[in-house]
Amino acid sequence: MRILLTGGTGFVGGAAAADLAQRGLLPQTIFLVRAASPEQGCERLRDNLLRFGATAAQAQAVTPAQVICGDLTGIDAFAESPLLAGLTHVIHCAALATFSSNPKIWASNVDGTLALARAVIARSQLTRWLQVGTAMCCGPGLASPVHESWEAGLQDDTHLVPYTRSKVAVEHALRALPGLPLVVARPSIVVGHSTLGCAPSPSIFWVFRMAFALERFTCAPDERIDIIPADWCARALVSLCLKPTLAHDLYHVSAGLGSNRFTEIDAAYAAARGTEPIAPRYQQVEVDRLRELVPLFEQRLGKVNRLLILRALMLYGAFAELNYVFDNSRLLAEGIDAAPPLAGYIAECVRTSESVPMTEQMAHDFK
Ligand SMILES: NC(=O)c1ccc[n+]([C@@H]2O[C@H](COP(=O)([O-])OP(=O)(O)OC[C@H]3O[C@@H](n4cnc5c(N)ncnc54)[C@H](OP(=O)(O)O)[C@@H]3O)[C@@H](O)[C@H]2O)c1
Fold first, then answer.
1. In angstroms, what is the span from residue 231 Cα to ligand 1's centroid?
2. Which of 36, 69, 144, 300 has minimal Cβ neighbours within 10 Å of its Cβ?
3. Which residue's CA lies nearest to atom 35 of ligand 1?
4. Where does the record place the Thioester reductase (TE) domain (predicted)?
5. How far is the CA of 279 from the centre of ligand 1 (A)?
6. Alpha carbon distance 18, 23 (integer Å)
7. Residue pLDDT, tens place only, 57-116
8. What pLDDT is attached to residue 121?
9. Contact between 20 and 26 (Cβ < 8 Å)
């Protein structure tokens, strides 16, 4: 077995690298990393492995000889790398995962991914290409729980952000590639780590912090919010990649109907902070009316860039307003344990966020 992991310096890919470490598979893994040299790429991978709780010995097990330096937007520079030969499994996590309108989204997530897949197929006899998608690529207007579907999300103009459109487009382009043993895994919303909280990455947790501080957001109090921790997500992704046979070629990696309701998350968040839940004062606000909250920003969030906060709340609020949970019965039927609910590990997210300003956490998601 010889695995290629992309995105190993990121949130989901870093958790996947740590999971491969736990399985003793790092020596058989090749990494695609943006770096000036294999040594620098190796350092980046090791630092991230440590952030995800790998031991120093596990991190040191990664060597520069396992690193391909490269960017998805410039595959030609490394398409002939001997490290792309003899691969059996690919876990493709790398992507420009942002709700901003970064002009490189399409070049990285669609064109670059396709070029990488072509380069790998040309040099390797793959058993599986595990494409990490996003459950939110299904687009709006569906009934919850949302079931896996190749058809949903195809209408370009319905996407809330270019990122989800790119993720659905690349899946279809990969499906059309002859010889690619494609399985798509679509995580729901990844927040924190079940034991390390937000220490490895603060991604998206700031949305909860803001909603609780403002005592207002777009979701209904009894709404379930489909959140999964990075380590569980990674375990599921690696399992889907390595399992010899699978019943399907498309999976949600999600908490589904096991997701906590907003009120349950509120209660656990308050307990972790030693405060009272906001439930009695909570107001659900439609996305279009979020701008009415601007006068509250400074009072509740401190000195902030009002426009930036409003934009962030509107983007994340629009997704929350969809009120989706993603059916995970396919995943569970493959023998993968259900995700630990956010309320069970939010205390660690709170503890590891205490000294970090919300706006600093937010910057992570606006690349
Ligand atoms: N986080 C979530 O809630 C969530 C939910 C559903 C699905 N996903 C999916 O999970 C995957 C990883 O997301 P994430 O949250 O882990 O994002 P992330 O923390 O931003 O990590 C992205 C990774 O991709 C790499 N990357 C980005 N652009 C690249 C390029 N042009 N060439 C090579 N590498 C590139 C980054 O490398 P650098 O370190 O060099 O920047 C980093 O390693 C994505 O496919 C995303 O769609 C995430």
1. 15
2. 36
3. 94
4. 5-236
5. 34
6. 9
7. 999 999 999 999 999 999 999 999 999 999 999 999 999 998 888 899 999 999 999 999
8. 96
9. yes
